[in-house]
Amino acid sequence: MARNAELGEFLRSRRARLRPEDVGVPSYGSRRRVPGLRREELAQLAGVSVAYYIRLEQGTAEGVSAEVLDAVSRALRLDGDEHAHLHRLAHPPRRPRAAGPPRLRAPLQHLLDSITHAPAYVVGHYTNVVAWNRLTAAVFVDLANVPADERTWSHQIHLNDDYRARLGDNWPAVARRNVAYLRFRSGQDPDDPRLRALIGTLRERSPEFGRMWSAHHVTDLTHGEARIDHPDVGRLVLPFETLHLPGDPDLSRLMLYAAEPGSTSEEALRKLAETSAHLSSADLADRETPSRSGD
């Protein structure tokens, strides 16, 4: 999608979700032809001219100041991630991109291998899984059996029916979170061809992804909870944390999961760890090959 269209669609989607009564705008009981606030009402709340705001919704952000964007953000009641996304759409950042596949330092793989009682993996900037430990394969998906160009969580969530079944009634929440994160990433680097190709593939192959993408939700992935209906050990509830890797620009973050001490999930992980311990280092060798899933 062209950058100016992205800005305009984002502003319209955020304006559409606001009702006049949410922001103290009198509606006088009149029939409204558009959902949410009118452009005139939003412009007044932001303290800018209607013509100026219309230019923004048309994607014309050249010369717009950070102060004006802040005012529009306040009027739209954007949260922190949305606020940052608006600024990035108006003034796109420039992020250097690696020429080849992401490089995994040996100590990172050794760290993953040392975590034997919880899932842990490293992802790149396209939700591509670069390296993982045994419990990641046992709990989520055995990525060694997935083609390298589909070894992304985005592919698994939206296009893998087996993994969708494992997510159970938690699939809609996981899917929306993934789409919102891809929106977040697209704001960070809107011209990234690998990211645009990934999003294009998902929109083409999954109508549900397309509908979620059109909602323009924006959220970074920092922490949360995974719920898995595992065929062997039942329901797993696993809080997770994300750790950024500032020394590895080709990589995005390290994902770590841990069950609550004394919970049935902790006992289930212990059982899975025991049954997966027979895997040899040769079985895991393919998992050390960096993924090029964003291509």
Automatic annotation (TrEMBL):
CDD domains: HTH_XRE. It holds the Pfam family MLTR_LBD. Signal peptide: none annotated. Residues 275-295 are annotated as: Disordered. Transmembrane segments: none annotated. Residues 36-83 form the HTH cro/C1-type domain. GO terms for molecular function: DNA binding. Coiled coil: none annotated. Residues 284-295 have a biased composition (Basic and acidic residues). Gene3D superfamilies: 3.30.450.180, lambda repressor-like DNA-binding domains. It comes from the Bacteria. This is Helix-turn-helix transcriptional regulator.
